[in-house]
Write a structure and sequence with these properties.
InterPro entries: GH43_arabinanases, Glyco_hydro_43, Glyco_hydro_43_endo_a_Ara-ase, Glyco_hydro_beta-prop_sf
Organism: Segatella oris
Structural class: mainly beta
CATH topology: Tachylectin-2, Chain A
Number of helices: 2
Number of domains: 1
Keywords: Glycosidase, Hydrolase
Strand order of the largest sheet: 1-10-9-8-7
GO molecular function: arabinan endo-1,5-alpha-L-arabinosidase activity
CATH architecture: 5 Propeller
Order of helices and strands: EHEEEEEHEEEEEEEEEEEEEEEE
Family: Belongs to the glycosyl hydrolase 43 family.
Largest sheet: 5 strands, antiparallel
Number of strands: 22
Strand content: 35-45%
CATH class: Mainly Beta
Radius of gyration: 20 Å
Length: about 350
C-alpha cells in the first residue's frame, strides 16, 4: 500500500512568482486560489509532538494531527503548511492491531537510515495500551513520491503487555545498530533493538530504561495485567548522542489539556545506549531520576513537552510543543538551543 502525499514540496509554493506571466491575470488568480486550498503560510505552526528533518536546503516538520501534519521551511522562521495530511488512507493492519482505533495517528518520528527516510507513528485508543507503532518510507522528502507502508514495528495489548507501544523514537547507535525507544505510562520508557528493516530484531524484547514513581501509589509495574495507565506519568522519549554520551529526553506529567496541561521535559545521560541513564545527581532514571530541563514559565507557556533534539548548523537544538498562554493553551512549535557542559546540559541563554 502506498500513501499519497497530496501536497509535496513542488506543490506548496504559493504566490504569483510561481505562475507564468503568459497565463494572464485571470489565470494567475485561479491558480493562486487552487494553491491556497492546498497550502498555507504561518510563522509559528500550531503543532503537537513535533519532529524535524533536513534535506537539500529544506526543513520538514511533522506533527500529530490531520493524518500527520507536514510543514516545510527554508529558514525555520517562515513555514508553509500542507492542508492534506501525510496519511490519507489508513492501512487495514492498524484496525486489526488496535480494535476501536479511530484513525487518529499521532507522535511521529523521522530518521534517514541507509539512504532512505523512515517516518514512524503511533495508533492507539487514548488512555489504553492496546496500541501499535507503524512505519512509512520514501527515498526523498523533497519530492511528490508517495510514502510506502512498511507495516507495524511492534504492538502492545492490554492485559498482556506492561508497556504502551506509542511515542516512537528510532535512534542509530554509534556502532550502526538501530534501536527503538518508546512508551507512555504503564512501566515507563522502553528500548528494543531493531533489524536493518527497522522492525524488531528476532528474539528481542523491550526492556525498561526510565520510570516515574508516584509517592502514594504503587507503580503499575506491580500489576502488569492492568489495562489502565496508572500513575507512571512519563512518555515521549528521544535519545540524542553528543560527545560520548547518549542523552535520554522524556516528558513528565500530563499533556493535551490546554491551560491545564502540566507537561515538562526531563533528561539523563548514559555512556551506553542501553543505560543506565543518570541525572546530574547520579539518580537512575529507571528509579525516577531525571533533571528538569524545560517547563512552563507561566508567562509564555503554561507547559512544554514531547521534544526532539537535532544538530542544526552545527549546534544542538531542541524543538517541542508548548501550550501558549497568549493563545489560550493552543500547542505551538517551540525552539530552544542547548548548551552542554561537564555535568549535563541546559537551555542556552
Amino acid at each position: 500500500m502506498k500513501f499519497q502525499l497530496r501536497c509535496g514540496l513542488h506543490s506548496i509554493a504559493t504566490g504569483f512568482r510561481t505562475l507564468s506571466w503568459t497565463c494572464g491575470l485571470l489565470c494567475a488568480v485561479a491558480a493562486y486560489g487552487q494553491e491556497s486550498m492546498r497550502s498555507f503560510a504561518v510563522d509559528t505552526p500550531s503543532v503537537h509532538d513535533p519532529v524535524m528533518a533536513f534535506e537539500n536546503g529544506t526543513y520538514h516538520l511533522y506533527s500529530t494531527g490531520n493524518g500527520l501534519s507536514h510543514y516545510t521551511s527554508h529558514d525555520m522562521k517562515h513555514w508553509t503548511g500542507c492542508r492534506q495530511g501525510v496519511i490519507t488512507d489508513i492501512p487495514q493492519w492498524t484496525r486489526d492491531s488496535v480494535p476501536g482505533f479511530t484513525q487518529h495517528v499521532w507522535a511521529p518520528d523521522i530518521i534517514q537510515f541507509n539512504g532512505r527516510w523512515y517516518l514512524s507513528y503511533a495508533c492507539s485508543s487514548f488512555g489504553k495500551n492496546t496500541s501499535a507503532i507503524g512505519l512509512l518510507s520514501k527515498s526523498s522528502l523533497n519530492s511528490d513520491e508517495p510514502w510506502h507502508d512498511e507495516g507495524c514495528i511492534l504492538a502492545s495489548r492490554g492485559g498482556r503487555d506492561n508497556w504502551n507501544a506509542i511515542d516512537p523514537n528510532v535512534i542509530v547507535a554509534q556502532d550502526g545498530t538501530p534501536w527503538l525507544a518508546f512508551g507512555s505510562f504503564w512501566d515507563g520508557i522502553q528500548l528494543v533493538r531493531l533489524d536493518s528493516s527497522l522492525h524488531v530484531a528476532p528474539g528481542e524484547r523491550p526492556f525498561t530504561i526510565a520510570r516515574r514513581y508516584a509517592p502514594t501509589h504503587p507503580n503499575v509495574a506491580d500489576n502488569p495485567t492492568s489495562d489502565e495507565a496508572g500513575p507512571n506519568a512519563i512518555e515521549a522519549p528521544f535519545i540524542y548522542f553528543h560527545r560520548g554520551w547518549y542523552y535520554l529526553f522524556v516528558s513528565w506529567d500530563y499533556c493535551c489539556q490546554g491551560m491545564k496541561s502540566t507537561y515538562r521535559i526531563a533528561v539523563g545521560r548514559s555512556r551506553q545506549i542501553m543505560g543506565p541513564y543518570l541525572d546530574s545527581h547520579g539518580r537512575d532514571m529507571l528509579k525516577g531520576g531525571g533533571d528538569i530541563l524545560f517547563e512552563g514559565d507561566k508567562n509564555e507557556f503554561e507547559a512544554v513537552g514531547h521534544c526532539a533534539v537535532y544538530t542544526v548548523k552545527g549546534k544542538p537544538m531542541l524543538i517541542c510543543h508548548g501550550y501558549s498562554i497568549a493563545r489560550g493553551g493552543t500547542p505551538v512549535l517551540v525552539k530552544r538551543n542547548l548548551k552542554f557542559n561537564a555535568h549535563g546540559l541546559s537551555l542556552a541563554k
